[in-house]
Amino acid sequence: MTTLPNPLPSAFDPHHPPANAIIDKCVHCGFCLPVCPTYVLWGQEMDSPRGRIYLMKLAAEGAAQITPKWVSHFDTCLGCMACMTACPSGVDYGKLIEATRAQIERNFPRSSAEKRHRHFLFETFTRPDRLRRLRAPLLAYQKSGLQALVRGLRLLRLLPKKWHAMEALLPELAPQETVPEVTPAVGPKRRRVGLLLGCVQREFFSQVNAATARVLSAEGCEVVAPQAQTCCGALLVHAGEEAAAIDLAKKTIDVFEHANVEAIVTNAAGCGSNVKEYAHLLRDVPEYAERARNFSAKCKDISEILAELEPRAPRHPLKLRVAFHDSCHLQHAQGVREQPRALLASIPGLELVEIPESAICCGSAGIYNLVQPGAAESLGDRKAELIAHLGAGVVATGNPGCVLQLQSSLSRQRQKTPVVHTIQILDASLRGQSPDFLGG
């Protein structure tokens, strides 16, 4: 009898490695290539979904190790999930990339500088209290003229690219708008819904949360916004920081269970895609597994909720030409594409225009534009150039990260087109408000 050689040990540890059943569904057809941002930029096979799945397979079979070169191909992936929309075989690349990144963070020794940078990002952007403390110094930096001086003298060029990128993404801070714990419905109550406030959204784009609550209220929803809620863990999940993400997911479930709501509304696409996957994230936590399934089933993007409700509040005309940007975690990860367009189309006088290459990411992708600033800038410039030719008075999107990225990219192109959340435009219509506040 011939003795077969022992198979090589997998490079992955046994805790939820990328699933072979999903890996094997990839037939290497290449339908994903035209929509993969990094393949579009560089044309390199290993920087495509097909190539990355091949690398996962090699590591699973022990034919490749988790080396710096191997890791680099996954670090440059935006996790935009455009490949999932394009894939005819139904490969769940999202679960593969998140499992792979979790393996990397457990088993790959990052440099001290990289560890410090990532620690700073996670300890800042997942902590609303810390973001709140940053508002005052950032406001002083912007209003004192110091920011204009620093940028005018190009002093930021003296900093490492990653820190330069962070400053370039700073939004112009608006006055804080507080969403109360409970916003009553206007007229007969149709639904009682919870509102996920987010982290960056809550502290830097509070006007979006306020607009969301007003619109829901006007459409007959009682809105509960628990003030005790924390980060939902989206940035951590997408970066492979599984244990920390699980802790935040449990806290989020606890808070909203006490709110006793029929649905949980999200207005940040990255957060929305994350909370809809809590059942998968918490599958190994017995006391939360069933609760996570129930929680995720209640989660809906603001455009999904409004699409389910027969419009009650009158829409006032807005003479606006609006370019709509699909957030990747809305159109690809959540499969929500038509609802925000229908929301905008319901406004009299508004002209909706499509941005070419709508399936391709703008380069935001969570913290991608802070850890891979070169690629993110190239993608942002590409998107800004496409927008510039549309003659739009405003760009609408459904994610704060996209707002930051598009604002920065348009600014580099010397374009002053404002970028706002879709719900802000509907809010203006419902209130009969002039679109001047949009910069239009």
Features:
Fumarate Reductase Iron-sulfur Protein, Chain B, domain 2; 50% helix; 440 residues; 4-stranded parallel β-sheet; Rossmann fold; alpha/beta; globular
What would you say about this model in short?
By secondary structure, this protein is of the alpha/beta class. It contains 24 helices and nine strands. The strands form two sheets. The chain has a five-stranded mixed beta sheet with strand order 1-3-2-4-5.
> For the CA atoms, what is the radius of gyration?
22 Å
In round numbers, the mean pLDDT is: 93
Query: N- to C-terminal separation?
Result: 79 Å
Which residue ranges are poorly predicted, with pLDDT under 50 across at least 5 consecutive positions? none
Strand content: 5-15%
CATH architecture of the largest domain: 3-Layer(aba) Sandwich
**Spatial strand arrangement across the major sheet:** 1-3-2-4-5
As for the number of domains, it is 4
Shape: globular
CATH topology description of the largest domain: Rossmann fold
CATH class of the largest domain: Alpha Beta
